[in-house]
Amino acid sequence: QVQLVESGGGSVQAGGSLRLSCAASPNTLAIASMGWFREVPGKEREGIAAIDRSRGFSAYADSVKGRVTISQDSVENTVFLQMNRLKPEDSAMYYCHAGPPLWALMPPERRLQPQEYPYWGKGNQVTVSS
Question: Which of 79, 97, 119, 125 could disulfide-pair with 34, CB 3.0 to 4.6 Å?
Answer without folding.
Answer: 79
